[in-house]
Amino acid sequence: MIEKFGVKSSDGKILISHLGLETNMYNNREDEVSTNFFNSKGNGVRWINDEKEVAIFPSSGRIIAYPTPDFTFVVVIYHPMDNPDFAAPNNAVIYNKDGSIHHRMKQQKLVSDLAKKHLKDYSELFESVYWAHDKNGNVVMAVEVGFNRDLYECRIVDTNTGELLQLLNFGAT
User: Coil, helix or strand for 125?
Assistant: First the structure.
């Protein structure tokens, strides 16, 4: 099980995450640690598995990461879109609790009316990851797929297969 999940700056500063449903793990941090974190050149993510620290750091750029609600996987979104490790449109990776790659997510057909109307020549990319409620009230893993520069759709992700499932919402950023 994934324990003590947090983000880490490129200079080694740890910012303990505030995990929760529909919660931004970076909220309410105005101290020196968070200032140094956000001013660093890059970031990674770390957690404890079987009493050992597991860390994921991109060779450049930043990542957005969140553990699955059952704490068995970590979904990582790599930024910017031309990230040398995992470039868009397939810039999302599902990691096992030991840090090995479980699945590299592939971009799939978008289903929202907004995407059908506005998806033209712009590439899609995975933008964010978090917990959300599905239509039955269950806590699920959600990813936002950005397209056409400032539009997105939020979908449930099956972390076993990397498949995008039910549309949760869509809009403009």
Answer: strand
pLDDT tens-digit series, residues 124-157: 899 999 999 999 999 999 999 988 888 899 999 9
Per DSSP, the three-state class of 18 is coil
Structure-block tokens of residue 73: 């996987």
Rounded Cα distance between 5 and 8, Å, is 10
Residue 168's pLDDT band (cuts 50, 70, 90): very high
- Mean pLDDT estimate for the chain: 85
For residue 77, the SS3 value is: strand
pLDDT tens, 62-86? 888 999 999 999 999 998 878 899 9
Query: In a 10 Å sphere around its CB, with 0-12 CB exposed, 13-18 middle and 19+ buried, how is residue 110 labelled?
Result: buried
d(CA 27, CA 150) in angstroms, rounded, equals 22
Contacts by residues 132-141 (CB-CB < 8 Å, ≥ 24 positions apart): 132/21, 132/22, 132/156, 132/168, 133/21, 133/22, 134/166, 134/168, 135/166, 139/21, 139/69, 140/69, 141/66, 141/68, 141/69, 141/75
